[in-house]
TrEMBL record:
Keyword Transcription attached: no
Organism listed in the record: Rhodopseudomonas rhenobacensis
Protein name, as recorded: Phosphonate transport system ATP-binding protein
Molecular functions (GO terms): ABC-type phosphonate transporter activity; ATP binding; ATP hydrolysis activity
Classification lineage: Bacteria, Pseudomonadati, Pseudomonadota, Alphaproteobacteria, Hyphomicrobiales
Alphabetical keyword list: ATP-binding, Cell membrane, Membrane, Nucleotide-binding, Translocase, Transport
NCBIfam families given in the database record: ABC_phnC (TIGR02315)
Gene3D superfamilies in the cross-refs: P-loop containing nucleotide triphosphate hydrolases
Record-linked InterPro entries: AAA+_ATPase, ABC_transporter-like_ATP-bd, ABC_transporter-like_CS, ABC_transpr_PhnC, MetN_ABC_transporter-like, P-loop_NTPase
Family per similarity comment: Belongs to the ABC transporter superfamily.
GO CC entries: membrane
């Protein structure tokens, strides 16, 4: 579905953020992208839809090589990719419904969007999505009256209304409490499976990533140092991704601490 081959990005100041990243993501597959601050995670997901221009390498979405496109052709192909950001850029004074429909603005044409008129099928789809993400009772609420979790759900609905094939998700839970984070991750993974979407989720919380994302890609200094199942995130692997630390409480399949406190991950799995 998505093929990234030998992708590099060197910023103008000489900073080599990606040093030859290759990665494939299939339809319906959701992967967690982890790594320390500065590893290149944001650069990588932004190179996929070319919000950041890669220095070399290829990005292929289905049959189309995105790295070979420009102008209108690139804009058209970008519609196949939905983006969900940590602080989703909602339009504060617009309602939940209007924010979701804003995801369709690229399609409605200048005059329709100017008068904020939308096709009946877009409105119906927005209603169905808001129902699905649990916000149907908040449809007329202004975005600035929503909680963080509700805002993220609007962001998800807004990305999905364009019916993308690929989702790029940048730190979706960074400002959410643990319970809300889990419900947002659960919703995201369910929606990817239901819609056969491929997704890359840039996520700092390793425990949350392990709990919800079956495949993890670990980046360190612009290089993929791990690509495998969440269950393979041993203390050794975590050290290769993040550096030396006592990983015994975080690593998959490792024992508990000396004081007998159970692993966080074990607790989370038991909850499910
Ligand atoms: N616009 C830029 N110009 C120059 N260097 C940049 C730019 N953006 C990012 N970098 C550098 O590229 C490297 C990768 O940054 P990036 O933001 O992709 O990392 P990250 O893994 O997403 O980090 P974080 O988890 O903190 O968001 C870092 O060394 C960063 O300083």
């Amino acid at each position: 579905m998505l093929r990234i081959q030998a992708l590099t990005k060197t910023y103008k100041n000489g900073e080599a953020a990606l040093k030859g990243v290759s990665l494939g993501v299939e339809a319906g597959e959701i992967i967690g992208l982890i790594g320390p601050s500065g590893a290149g995670k944001s650069t990588l997901i932004r190179c996929v839809n070319r919000l950041i221009e890669p220095s070399s390498g290829r990005v292929q979405l289905g049959e189309v090589e995105l790295t070979g496109l420009s102008g209108g052709a690139l804009r058209r192909e970008r519609r196949r990719i939905g983006m969900i950001f940590q602080e989703y850029a909602l339009i504060e004074r617009l309602t939940v419904m209007e924010n979701v429909l804003a995801g369709r603005l690229g399609y409605t044409g200048f005059w329709n969007s100017w008068f904020r008129r939308f096709a009946a099928q877009d409105v119906q789809r927005a209603i169905a999505l808001l129902e699905r993400v649990g916000l149907i009772d908040h449809i007329d609420k202004r975005a600035d009256a929503l909680s963080g979790g509700q805002r993220q759900r609007v962001g998800i609905a807004r990305a999905l209304i364009q019916q993308p094939e690929l989702l790029l998700v940048d730190e979706p839970t960074a400002s959410l409490d643990p319970k809300t984070s889990r419900s947002v991750m659960r919703l995201l993974t369910e929606l990817c499976i239901e819609n056969r979407l491929a997704a890359i989720v840039n996520i700092h919380d390793v425990v949350l990533a392990q709990a919800f994302l079956p495949r993890i890609v670990g980046l360190n200094a612009g290089i993929v140092v791990y690509d495998g199942p969440a269950s393979g995130l041993t203390a050794e692997v975590l050290t290769s991704i993040y550096g030396e630390e006592d990983w015994t409480r975080t690593a998959a399949g490792e024992g508990g601490s000396d004081d007998g406190e159970p692993l966080v991950i074990a607790r989370m799995e038991a909850e499910q």
